[in-house]
Design goal:
DUF6261; rod-shaped; 258 residues; 2 domains; disordered C terminus; 11 helices; single chain; mainly alpha
């Protein structure tokens, strides 16, 4: 009696966007290798799955862009602090009882007073203002006064942060930032439905008209599902362990008791 091979169940809801997109991509590769005809899968159904993968790839790009935007915001905060610290130092040091520090601060204050409030400027304009201010402060006649106040490291740090921001923001147009957000939850729901139909066709086709291609597809699909869920468990386990390690010692003990 012929052994009936079924496609294993998989909890797709557990997969994050990267895992999910990779899984769908590998399913598409397996179907392509076996050919939709040999699996009795309608070409339109397979085409729909390929289109969903394109959207999933776009969503991954949005996730990266979101992370990149957060990084830019963090760098911007850091350069704000450094710029404000410099400008505040010049203003406060003007009242220093040490004559040399007072003189240096007064000169630097006059040089930089036009840049007061730069932290409130739009980010792109701010980048240009910081570059201009640093250019003035790092002139030979002013650099000596920076050394007198012990602010060389702060100036260097601000220059590095401003350059880092400029480099990261290059090529990011307003249109990129204004792109319509695609919902992973909705696309996942639609893709799940296509995947279920596709695997049903493949199962029925192999059951009624088994071929070397369909049989190989069934076996490879089951291996893919096992590998995918094992990788997912490993990621979740690693994430859980890292969170537990971040807990204070007493909290760890409470978790152990539970």
């Amino acid at each position: 009696m012929k052994k009936i091979i079924e496609i294993k169940a998989i909890n797709l809801e557990k997969l994050n966007v990267a895992e999910y997109a990779q899984f769908i991509e590998r399913v598409i590769n397996l179907v392509t290798k076996a050919t939709p005809e040999k699996l009795f899968i309608e070409k339109t159904l397979f085409s729909d799955l390929q289109k969903k993968l394109e959207i999933l790839t776009e969503i991954i790009g949005q996730t990266y862009a979101s992370q990149e935007t957060k990084k830019l915001a963090d760098i911007d905060k850091e350069r704000n602090k450094l710029a404000v610290f410099l400008l505040s130092s010049f203003r406060l040091e003007k009242n220093n009882i040490e004559e040399n520090r007072k003189e240096s601060a007064t000169i630097l204050y006059d040089v930089s007073k036009n840049y007061k409030g730069l932290q409130y400027l739009p980010v792109r304009q701010k980048t240009q203002f910081i570059s201009a201010m640093l250019n003035d402060l790092m002139k030979r006649e002013n650099n000596t006064h920076i050394d007198v106040l012990g602010l060389s490291k702060t100036v260097t740090a601000l220059e590095a942060k401003n350059q880092e921001y400029q480099k990261l923001s290059e090529g990011r147009s307003e249109s990129q930032l204004a792109n319509t957000f695609v919902s992973f939850k909705q696309i996942k729901k639609e893709t799940n439905a296509i995947y279920r139909d596709l695997t049903k066709y493949a199962f029925a086709g192999n059951l009624l008209h088994e071929s070397p291609e369909s049989l190989n597809f069934m076996n490879l699909m089951n291996k893919l599902i096992t590998d995918t869920m094992n990788a997912n468990k490993k990621r979740l386990s690693s994430s859980s362990a890292n969170k537990n390690n971040m807990l204070p010692k007493e909290d760890k003990n409470i978790s152990d008791i539970r």
